[in-house]
Design goal:
Number of helices: 6
Largest sheet: 2 strands, antiparallel
Strand content: 5-15%
Order of helices and strands: HHHHHHEE
Radius of gyration: 25 Å
Distance between the termini: 32 Å
Helix content: 40-55%
Shape: rod-shaped
CATH architecture of the largest domain: Orthogonal Bundle
Length: 129
């Protein structure tokens, strides 16, 4: 993902446009693309600020956040449950469709690991810091 232009440069470009120069002229003078100068002027008019917007996905738990307690309880009750089985249980009991990969990421973020035991069985356990 690219870096944002500095706030100082953004302010100089919009100030140059506000002084009566064209947006394309501002782009040439400050060595940025014409679309950058146009979008900065639009942003200034729309929001009153040229500060960059936050990048990336918004914070939140996604569709698994409301069923987090259910998932954690299911894994703790049956540590050797497979992810496809967990996905089926979630669909049957809560009506939420999810892929095993999404369940794996969700559980890993909450400290669960997938380990083999000495007897060859596998189980999800919570990692202790």
């Amino acid at each position: 993902m690219g870096e944002c232009y500095s706030l100082d440069l953004r302010e100089r470009i919009t100030r140059f446009v506000e002084e009566g120069h064209s947006r394309r002229e501002a782009a040439r003078r400050f060595a940025v693309s014409a679309s950058c100068a146009v979008k900065l002027a639009q942003r200034q008019a729309r929001t009153g600020s040229v500060a960059p917007a936050r990048q990336g996905r918004p914070k939140g738990g996604g569709k698994l956040a409301p069923v987090a307690d259910f998932l954690i309880a299911a894994v703790e009750a049956t540590p050797d449950i497979t992810l496809p089985e967990l996905a089926e249980t979630l669909l049957a009991e809560r009506g939420v469709t999810v892929t095993p990969g999404a369940l794996s990421r969700f559980l890993c973020q909450r400290g669960f690991t997938y380990k083999k035991s000495p007897d060859g069985r596998r189980a999800r356990t919570r990692a202790h810091p």
